[in-house]
Design brief:
Radius of gyration: 27 Å
CATH topology of the largest domain: Jelly Rolls
Largest sheet: 7 strands, antiparallel
Order of helices and strands: EEEEEEEEEEEEEEEEEEEEEE
Number of strands: 22
Strand content: over 45%
Oligomer: single chain
Helix content: under 10%
Distance between the termini: 45 Å
Length: about 280
């Protein structure tokens, strides 16, 4: 007779399935995984052993039910705390005692692993190793602390942020830069720059430019955004991929703000910097 165990492998959005035989009398249902490699279920003494194709960047959950009518497989409960299982390419293997149930169905769910933060700064411990400079007319500077008089009513979180004049509008002919401390991207295959910003910048005339610099000599490696301007709806999340040219280096992120010779506005404020890798 069979083992009374059935198996399915699927992504977050299940697709068509097919009935197959998975050896040792175990009948299973599966969605064809990447590269056409099947999910395997075998018996080893009192244990069941599940083996499935494994890919870097994915996590896996084992879900189980005793009744196929219990709902869609992705709603089944996690079985025996087998959740967020890390990938071990080329295959993952999971062993567990066979249950006493007459029938029990298992699914292996795959999903992308969440990004990992490699750099975070909320500025609540001070300026750290962030640096500022002025290349234009006097009257505008990147300032650190709590906003007042103009701009947002408070930092995005906590008390501190950076802003283009914390208590006044920016002036004309500004050219100021704000540079992060060193971020290690030497082993990153991809990365994302995330931060919160509040903006009131004359659209089409004044702007912020976001670039990635080589930490060794401050030479420019890549431009993430050439024109950040306009008016934000309060604090908003900014999230953009770091260009490939900047990967493999120790870098600094630069936010350079420039204005023309006419009108002035409240400016740009930034807070809660977070650099993530897949």
């Amino acid at each position: 007779g069979g083992l009374g165990a059935h198996a399915l492998v699927f992504g977050k959005t299940p697709s068509e399935t097919a009935l197959v035989t998975l050896g040792v009398g175990v009948t299973g249902v599966l969605r064809t995984p990447p590269r056409g490699q099947p999910l395997e279920v075998t018996s080893d003494g009192d244990d069941l052993v599940l083996t499935w194709p494994s890919e870097d960047g994915l996590l896996y959950n084992l879900r189980s039910e005793t009744d196929l009518a219990a709902g869609e497989p992705f709603t089944w409960p996690i079985y025996n705390e087998n959740q967020d299982i890390e990938a071990t390419p080329p295959t993952n293997t999971l062993r567990f005692p066979r249950s006493d149930d007459a029938e029990r169905y298992f699914v292996v769910e795959r999903f992308p692993a969440p990004p990992v933060s490699i750099y975070m700064e909320d500025f609540e411990s001070g300026e750290g190793e962030w640096t500022v400079g002025v290349d234009g007319a006097v009257g505008t500077a990147w300032e650190f602390g709590s906003p007042s008089n103009v701009g947002p009513s408070a930092a995005n979180s906590g008390a501190n942020c950076w802003g283009t004049n914390l208590s006044a509008d920016y002036a004309v002919d500004a050219d100021i830069w704000l540079r992060s401390s060193v971020v290690d991207l030497t082993t990153a295959g991809a990365a994302t720059l995330n931060f919160f910003h509040w903006a009131d910048i004359e659209e089409g005339f004044d702007r912020a430019r976001i670039a990635v610099l080589n930490a060794e000599d401050d030479s420019e490696l890549a431009v993430i955004d050439d024109t950040l301007d306009g008016i934000s709806d309060g604090w908003e999340l900014y999230s953009e991929s770091v260009p490939e040219e900047a990967l493999g280096h120790n870098v600094r992120f630069e936010i350079r703000f420039t204005s023309d010779d006419l009108q002035s506005f409240a400016g740009l404020y930034v807070d809660d910097i977070n650099v993530t890798v897949p």
